[in-house]
Each structure stands twice: as C-alpha cells, then as structure tokens.
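Now for today's protein.

===
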Amino acid sequence: MTEKMLTFHSGSREETVELGRKLGRLLKEGDVIALSGELGSGKTCMTKGLALGLGVPENEVVTSPSFTFMIEYEGRETLYHMDVYRLEHLSDFLGTGLDEYLGHGGVVVLEWADRWPEILPDHTLSVTFVILGDDARALSFCARHARAVEILEGLERAISRME
C-alpha cells in the first residue's frame, strides 16, 4: 500500500486559503478531500482556497453548508462542498443521498469526514486541522492511495517552489 503523510503549518486564515488554492489547482474530477478538526479550525477556509484553485470565481462566497449539507460551486471542475456536522448517524448521511457524489464526478470536499471514515473512497486525501493558537493551525495530510499520494506530492512541490 502506498502512503504519504505531511504536516504544514499555517499562521493565518489567508495562509490556509492559499494552501487550499495550491491544493485545488491539483485536483481533478473524482477526487475527494476529507476534512476533520474541531469547530473553527479552518476547514471552511481551506475549502475557500480549494474553490479558488478549481477556478470558482473569486466573488463567489464560499460558506459552510452546515444547514443545507451541500453547496455546489462551478469552476474548472464542479466542487461539491459537504458538511455533515448536523447529521447524527451514518443512516442520516446515506438518507440524504450525498454518498452518491463520493468519487463520481466533480471534486468532493467533506467537512467532519472523521465521523464515518468507512464511507470514504480509497483515493481520499484526508486533512486534519489542529488549533495551535489564535490563527495558527497544523494541517496534517494523509494519503493512502496512489492518486492521493500524487496530489500530496504535487502540493509539496508547489509549496517548496514558494519558499
């Protein structure tokens, strides 16, 4: 099994958005990004950047779909931004039909993905957010499939070019 893990540090919301933008530029149809971390840790900031990297217009407001469960954004690839915070059980998630989007077209970003990891496709790239301070975050990326490793290596190269 192929596996790669990396941790990046962000000192601000802007840095988290920019990291997301770099990641978004690498994504293609069928990719799944699983975001986990406590409230306010930066999951939606990352998604804003992913949307920008996927070509969603900058004037499009990316917000957390906590009450609607999913918001669709049009860019180079369609972005399906899901948030399952308010769902209690796996059966609730399955009842919404959101599982049909996982790995079947567009790019899926799933917030609170750690609730039911068993539903995630093998090629999912997982990101865990840890609050270090006011705006400081540690973002730990875990790839356990060739496609996810490819994305993560591309992100690593994009960041090293900027340093």
User: Anything to note?
Assistant: DSSP finds four helices and seven strands in the chain. Residues 4-162 form a domain with the Rossmann fold fold (CATH 3.40.50.300). The longest helix spans residues 146-162.
